Amino acid sequence: MDFNIAIDGPAGAGKSTVARIIAEKLNMTYIDTGAMYRAITLLAIRHNKRDVKDIIELANQAQIKLSKGSIYINDEDVSDAIRSVDVNSEVSKIARIPEIRLAMVQLQREMAKNKGVVMDGRDIGTTVLPDAKYKFYLTANVKERALRRHREMLAKGEKVTLEDIEKEIIRRDHQDTNRDLSPLKAAEDSIIIDTTDKTVQQVVEDIINIVKRGEGIVL
Predict the structure, then answer these.
(1) 80 phi and psi, to 5 degrees?
(2) Cα(219)–Cα(212) distance, rounded to whole angstroms?
(3) Is 28 helix (H, G, I), strand (E, B) or coil?
(4) CA–CA separation, 35 vs 72, rounded Å?
(5) What domains sit in the chain, N to C, each tagged with a CATH number?
(6) Model pLDDT, residue 97
(7) Contact (Cβ atoms closer than 8 angstroms) between residue 172 and residue 92
(8) Contact 144, 196 (CB under 8 A)
(9) Which among 164, 13, 8, 180 is positioned nearest to 95, based on CA atoms?
(10) Which of 20-34, 58-72, 148-162 has the highest mean pLDDT?
(11) Residue 75: which region, alpha, beta or left (left: phi > 0; alpha: psi -120 to 50)?
(12) Which of 19, 101, 207, 217 has a 20 to 30 A CA-CA distance from 60?
């Protein structure tokens, strides 16, 4: 495909799951930008780094690679480790560090320069790929997003309450929408899809139908 698809939205809106399926169905490359920030957060936690300068230095020394739906730090597959409760609670703080964000944006743009990618995150349509041909913003109410995240965490054996997850999502929404550098928001030309009462398959079909119509593909 000679175009890119940008999918943004808050935590728990389903963007990563949807983006992964769409990339597979359209034979495009899936890029989970949130996983990149999570990887740096995991590094900071593992090395007990709290100072911004130390975190930036750690990130500059690390080799972060996305391959076939998995993310690697220095050749270690950390796809599961980056989804922990500890990483969830710290990632917004790391993602708002300007030097980290600028470095990641540059890397993400490099990944998408040859087109054919489905990229999801919080600032893809507004900052990373403002020229993406198709832009979508997925959202859902807080309670539904908390329920989804709660099911995910329980499936992984994480002991966490629904109430705590809901509070964490509200806190992350506030941090993400109020950060100075590329805050979470829908691009002016994005298509907003409320996923609260939709299944993953319904959202996928909605987006693929829009793309097919845009490309003149008979449905």
Answers:
(1) -85, -40
(2) 7
(3) coil
(4) 10
(5) 5-197 (3.40.50.300)
(6) 93
(7) yes
(8) yes
(9) 180
(10) 20-34
(11) left
(12) 19
For residues 122 and 10, is the Cβ–Cβ distance under 8 A? Answer: yes
Nearest alpha-carbon partner for 14 in 194, 162, 210, 206: 194
Q: Where are the alpha helices (DSSP H) in 47-141?
A: 52-61, 85-95, 98-112
Give the CA diameter of the chain. Answer: 54
Average pLDDT for the chain: 93
Torsion of CA 9, 15, 19, 25, to 10 degrees: -130
DSSP-based three-state secondary structure for 191: strand
What gap in Å lies between CA 1 and CA 27, rounded to an integer?
8
**The whole model's pTM is what?**
0.88
pLDDT in tens, 78-87: 999 998 889 9
